[in-house]
Specification:
By secondary structure, the protein is α/β, with parallel strands linked by helices. It has a domain of 273 residues: 2-enoyl-CoA Hydratase, Chain A, domain 1. Helices cover 46% and strands 18% of the residues. The strands form six sheets. Strands 11, 14, 16, 17, 18, 20, 21 and 22 form an eight-stranded mixed sheet that branches. A six-stranded parallel sheet has the order 9-7-6-4-1-10, with helices on both faces. A three-stranded parallel sheet has the order 3-2-5. Strand 6, helix 5 and strand 7 form a beta-alpha-beta unit. Helix 1 crosses helix 21. The protein is globular, with a radius of gyration of 27 Å.
């Protein structure tokens, strides 16, 4: 026994030493990283503005295109470890494309969106339309990719010419996908799922208590996905001078699952004018040198080009100095309590922005950009309350709906004086999602019993135990009362009766053109339309637009500047990938242990490849 004790004692000391060395080494590397960054930042001269004349502009964004970028300590560090977490603001990208269209000094624009993600289908469609306008302006637009997915082909198809690597890949997979339905799994695990959701179409939780998709969910998904897909196909087909059916045939019969070596796909695409042809990297480089000349200043042989980041430095800010301000505040991502982060519309952070705007005497109107499938009820209430506080001061509130403004996204839009939505915005889903798993059968199966002393009837209850009839009625009332409150808010906001809204609610999701017909939105249009209307409603002859974003601490500002100076990404360590999976599993367990009633529309999200 003493030998074992000695071994484990030695092992403990050894591991402690290893941890200490690893920690010291890690700290040293981090310190060295920031020392180098600080020296580089301090010794760097002022930014040189590169002359774009005669150069092809390369637009190849890496990261996610979003309405409003979010920066905090966590997201800044994530950007270092994962380049895909980089954020590109939609308005900045559009502004750059429009500037290029008007710049006669630029002979061509080269586009490659193969490393670009989009917040949703509407964002992708809007950027594609800007590229179409760029080409229609007479500018030569050249697309070159080693692989093309649905969204990157949507962008490439707007170019004057499209080239793909000979052993690359082109695949247009369309929209939609499969969800796992877990009723049988939960039954096998002896987990009982209680559904308290409100609304016949509120299907966010049905994967827990059904074995297949409900007909209501199928109907509403088809009503969303097919119009969006038709719009995307139409843009692709028009860009290439072919028919939408040609795009559909390619999507149906030529899948590029592996992302490379899809030689048959490329051959079909070239034969049917989906692309112009193939070029290897050296062949494309030679082609561009012949077209636009050799860059004599480059260290390696290449054509005359300027990056979109360099070109953006030359675009002037066209904001005015008016004493009247229209504040643009964005709620993007899942609605939760807490601060704003990537993919999360943190209520605390959004409320701070709304409050700062309405406490500024120059603010005459707020354009509230909603790009969210919903989430927490209390977080939604927090945002709604602050918008109402702004309205009580006489400030006009205009909502501009983005990719998604559903469930909680509708809830936070109810204070609006007027609502705009993009043609392919997904909205509605007026309902409440509650699914509560209980483990009484599993506990009984493994031999766990519960007993104790409580001073109230349900004081000791948790989801490991059964739900009795009285508790069942209490839980059911939660959903019912929250649903009634939701409907009343929407009815008041839309100047309709409770019964009118209930008839179109039921958790059903609507595409914006249909939502306008039933009175959930006022007009089809984008952010620019909302700004113009806000100025008119507030009777402003002149105004400046102020985009409210995340306020950084002094430390975060320094970190952001350093990262921009270095422009680095070190890749995601494998251990972080593993921890991410563990975190997701933990989140699932927390959802079971701490269930919540949500104004959420998981069905609204459209997967884009």
């Amino acid at each position: 026994m003493s030998a074992f004790t000695s071994i484990f004692s030695w092992l403990g000391r050894f591991l402690k030493k290893v941890r200490s060395i690893a920690l010291d080494l890690g700290t040293a590397l981090i310190v060295m990283f920031f020392v180098i960054a600080i020296i580089k930042a301090l010794t760097a001269s002022g930014p040189d503005v590169e002359d774009p004349a005669g150069k092809a502009l390369l637009i190849d964004p890496e990261g996610m295109v979003v309405d409003q970028e979010v920066f905090n300590s966590e997201s800044l560090l994530t950007t270092v470890t994962d380049a895909s977490s980089t954020q590109i603001q939609t308005r900045d990208l559009i502004k750059l494309i429009r500037a290029a269209a008007e710049d006669d000094s630029i002979p061509a624009v080269v586009v490659d969106f193969s490393s670009t993600g989009f917040a949703g289908p509407t964002t992708a469609i809007n950027v594609a339309k800007e590229l179409k306008a760029l080409r229609d302006s007479g500018k030569r637009v050249i697309a070159f990719n080693d692989r093309l997915s649905t969204t990157s082909y949507l962008m490439a198809s707007q170019a004057s010419e499209v080239w793909v690597h000979p052993v690359g890949s082109i695949s247009v997979r369309g929209l939609g996908g499969m969800r796992n339905y877990n009723k049988d799994l939960f039954e096998n695990l002896k987990i009982t799922v209680h559904n308290y959701s409100q609304g016949d179409f509120k299907s966010a939780t049905e994967t827990s208590w059904r074995s297949s998709m409900s007909e209501n969910d199928r109907m509403q998904r088809e009503a969303l996905l097919f119009p969006i897909w038709e719009e995307m196909k139409s843009l692709m087909a028009e860009g290439r001078g072919i028919e939408s059916d040609d795009i559909q045939s390619f999507a149906d019969n030529y899948v590029g699952f592996f992302g490379e070596a899809a030689i048959g796909n490329i051959a079909y695409a070239q034969a049917n004018n989906l692309i112009d042809g193939t070029k290897s990297f050296p062949e494309f480089r030679k082609y561009m040198i012949e077209e636009f000349g050799l860059d004599e200043e480059a260290e390696t042989e290449t054509y005359k080009t300027i990056s979109y980041a360099e070109y953006a430095k030359q675009i002037t800010d066209d904001s005015s100095d008016s004493g009247n301000q229209i504040a643009v505040i964005t709620a993007e991502g899942a609605i939760r309590e807490g601060e704003i982060s990537q993919g999360v519309a943190g209520a605390n952070g959004v409320v701070k922005q709304i409050r700062k705007a309405h406490e500024d005497e120059s603010t005459k109107a707020i354009v509230f950009r909603v790009n969210s499938p919903g989430g927490s009820i209390i977080a939604s209430e927090m945002m709604r309350d602050e918008l109402l506080a702004a309205k009580r001061k006489g400030i006009k509130v205009i909502v501009s709906m983005g990719d998604y403004a559903a469930s909680g996204g509708v809830y936070i839009s109810t204070p609006a004086d007027y609502i705009f939505a993009e043609p392919t915005t997904i909205t509605g889903s007026i309902g409440v999602a509650i699914a509560l798993p209980t483990l009484e059968n599993a506990m009984d199966y493994i031999g766990v019993n519960f007993d104790g002393v409580v001073t109230s009837k349900h004081g000791g209850w948790d989801p490991t135990q059964a739900i009795d009839d009285d508790l069942d009625k209490i839980f059911a009332s939660w959903g019912s009362e929250a649903y009634d409150r939701f409907i009343n808010f929407v009815a008041e906001s839309r100047s309709q009766t409770y019964d009118d809204i209930k008839a179109i609610a039921g958790g059903r999701v609507w595409i914006a053109t249909s939502a306008k017909d039933i009175g959930l939105v006022d007009e089809i249009g984008g952010v620019d339309d909302a700004l113009t209307y806000a100025a008119s409603l507030a009777e402003l002859e002149d105004y400046q637009v102020e985009y409210y974003g995340q306020e950084l601490s002094p430390e975060e500002i320094i970190l952001k500047e350093l990262l921009e100076q270095l422009d680095v990404s070190i890749g995601e360590p494998k251990v972080l990938s593993a921890l991410s999976g563990i975190a997701k599993l933990y989140g699932t367990l927390i959802d079971i242990h701490e269930p919540k009633a949500l104004l959420a529309c998981k069905d609204c999200l459209v997967d884009l490849d």
